[in-house]
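Justification of resources, computational component.

The compute hours requested in this renewal are based largely on the per-chain cost of generating structure records like the one below. Each record pairs the submitted sequence with a full structure-token output. That output is archived, and it is also reused by downstream analysis tasks.
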Amino acid sequence: MTYDPNNPSALETKARLAAPYVTGKQVVDVGVSSISLFHSIQQSAAGAIGIVCSPLSPPALLLAGKPIVRGNALRLPVPDRIAQTVLSFGTLPYQRQKQDFFRELVRITTPGGYLLVEAANRSSFASIQKPLAATVPRLDLLVEIKMILPHELELKEVLGVQLVPRTTPLLERFGESLDRVVSGSLLRFFSTALILVLRKRDDL
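The structure output for this chain reads:
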């Protein structure tokens, strides 16, 4: 069983979930998991910067738009408190030093700003049925992530993406509709990926 964070229906779900937090905001996309998703963010945000963190990313990704740069996930090449919203889809599973990664996201977020961080869910139906492929190096439990969150962050909401991986044309066709139903229900905690909606405290 594989998890494809760039599956079209998964990207549609992420764009929909991110929309309320990026419209009219200064946004930093840490990881740039998808050029199409980044471009949709650019269209609604007041300003957007993409940071490619993987050394394996193709050079074409860096040429896709001027606001996209390469950087280290633990030393992001942007100033403190630059973003009203920070997005990080598909990057957390590749981080060994997850707590340091969250601290770096906090550094670049304005007080009162939001962070949407995607985690590959170890408690998903897919991973329970059959271990996920090696393309997802680190699955996480929500309870473990909560334990390492910096004190500056409040977990406001947990959303689900891909309750069932899109392994057939039928599931692909109805994937977005299924995610809409699941996202607000208890079933979301068994989704293949979780989107953590975090808020940086105003006084920090």
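Residues 8-22 form the longest helix (15 residues). The radius of gyration is 16 Å.
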